[in-house]
Amino acid sequence: MSAVDRTGRFLRVNPELCRILGRPAEEVFTLGVADVTWPDDLAPSFAALGLAVETGRAASLDKRYVRPDGTLIWANSSIQRLDDRWGDIKHFLVVTADINARKVAEEALRTSEEFNRRVLASSADCVKVLDLDARLEFMSEGGMCVMEVDDFGAVAGVCWLDLWPGDHHPDALAAIEAAKRGGTGRFQGGAPTLKGSPRWWDVIVTPMAGSDGAPEKLLSISRDITAIKQAEAALRESEERFRTILNTVEAAFAIVEVKFDGDDRPVDYRFVEANPAFERQAGVNLRGKWVTEFAPDLERFWFDAYGHVAKTGEPASFENYAAAFERWFDVRAVRIGKPEERRIAILFNDVTERRSAQKALHESDTRFRALVTAGAQTVYRMSPDWQEMRALDGAGFLTDTGSPDMRWLDAYIAPEDRPGVMDAIADAIHRRDVFELEHRVRRADGSFGWVLSRAVPIFDEHGAIVEWFGAANDVTERVQAEERQEVLNHELSHRLKNTLTMVTSIARQTLRAVSDREPVEAFERRVQALASAHDLLLRTSWASASLRAVCEDVLSTTAPAGRLVLDGPDIAMGPSAALSASLLLHELATNAAKYGSLSSDAGRVEVRWYVEARSGTPDLVLHWHERGGPPVKAPTSRGFGSRLIRMGLGGAGGVEVDYAPDGVRATMRAPLHEVQRS
């Protein structure tokens, strides 16, 4: 309580006012009401004072006082005018009550209510209060927005269950019943807004307890999850498209889980998932299996590479060979999922064919460069389609081409040779591989010579041929020497055949008086077999003869092709072995025609040969087997023919003869290098 004069100065104060103002009485007496009032409250204070003056009645207001430390305190001041005996204002009696606690509580309540209002207004959730019959009593501002409700009055009192038509009505009813029992009801369902927009909601219904603890009302919170549902649907569609793509593309895809040991070293990995292309390229179904089950000796590289990706999350791209699969793979690996799952996705392609082609091309290119380095006389460059010769350095052998030339065929290739040259070029372009051909060319002096020409394709970064680079060696002297040798061989053969004919004639004249003609005829047939073998060798300039050709040439004079079976790989025999084999097969065929399978109409002869490795050294093995002839009897004596047979393929034996009753069998074996020796 205090007494204040008309200027607002304190005349008397009690201890309670001093406490409220936080000042001693001595200080208060030096101050006026305006000195201790919060500036914002001065006008209301003077207004209350004026009211008290005019009416003579008490005027009351709530105001804030300022304490010395700057803090504010709320108080209620009641101002009463006191007059003297003449009716003039003597002073004012001010009764001040401390209402700070109440004001702070009211402010806190207002702040809390405002905060709750803003929360509800800004929340995207639809918050509703229902009575126990599920009728709407309240809806938050944010809820009205998301439910597209412009005026709550339009839905107040509406049964909340009626907002859930269709399949989700039972779910809403179950949630209400659960909340009425004191529990929590929750479900997800679809329901339109008040304006008919389709929405998906995640709904929770809980009880609001009364003073007795029993449910008095229900609180329903609905969250719009339409975007989530749409995203889930889009994700499902995307995953389905992705899986369809994975199941149809040629690229192999797999998800693997990497296993680490106690020292955190990768030691294995399991195939969690794989597409069909993976199984095709790997050649085995590894889904659900650890790789070491299939490939216990798999290279350490694969574990380290995948382990690094799984541990660090750093993607990896590489090409590497897997010996267990006998394939080259181009691999892209990236970590997926949580780091602790140690899973990675792998996308890879089988590039074995490309690597093999690259290796072959590299080897071919190396040989080609060696050829050029060794001194090829001519180097040239051609366009991708060989229509244009871009440059040629003839080194004096051929005429140089200093600028691109579209008429190079006319300049270098004779008309009769062009079809063969162009066929070889077309084949190389089709194969995208080395061109190689021995052919004639017009030399710088106008005459024709021979070259061994070889060119390799040059590729750009996209794999397209940009040009061909080639070299040609002058092989004219060798070709001419081979032609001269062929003439000499034919002359030698002619003279040798004349000599053999003369030998046969002399033998006939000398042995004319011999009564037993069989040895004489056998001698003549052997000489004829020897002459046939010489003819066969002459076809290859006495370099070699095919074993199959030897068999066909010798046996065709004894039996028709239908009674012969010849089976074996192409093997070139040296001249000595070819002559020896001709005589040997002649003797076997003669014996078969006289005593064995070829002496009957149903008999036949099988001749089979192959290469067999013994102790690392390959041998040629030839089997002679007679079938369908008369019963066989072993000879009681050995003549020249038998001794000739037992000399074998190379003249050094290695022959086993079995005179089985159902047909003669003979096995001949000789070192392959001896048979092929020139």
TrEMBL record:
Q: Does the keyword Phosphoprotein apply?
A: yes
Q: Name one Pfam family in it.
A: HWE_HK
The broad enzyme category this protein falls into is transferase
Keyword Coiled coil recorded: yes
Record's catalysed reaction(s): ATP + protein L-histidine = ADP + protein N-phospho-L-histidine
The UniProt keyword set, sorted, is: ATP-binding, Chromophore, Coiled coil, Flavoprotein, FMN, Kinase, Nucleotide-binding, Phosphoprotein, Photoreceptor protein, Receptor, Repeat, Sensory transduction, Transferase, Virulence
Matches recorded under SUPFAM superfamilies: PYP-like sensor domain (PAS domain)
**Where does the PAS domain lie?**
1-56
Coiled-coil positions: 221-248
Task: Report domain PAC positions.
Answer: 59-111, 181-237, 435-487
This entry's Enzyme Commission designation comes to: 2.7.13.3
According to UniProt, the name of this protein is Blue-light-activated histidine kinase
**What organism is this sequence from?**
Methylobacterium goesingense
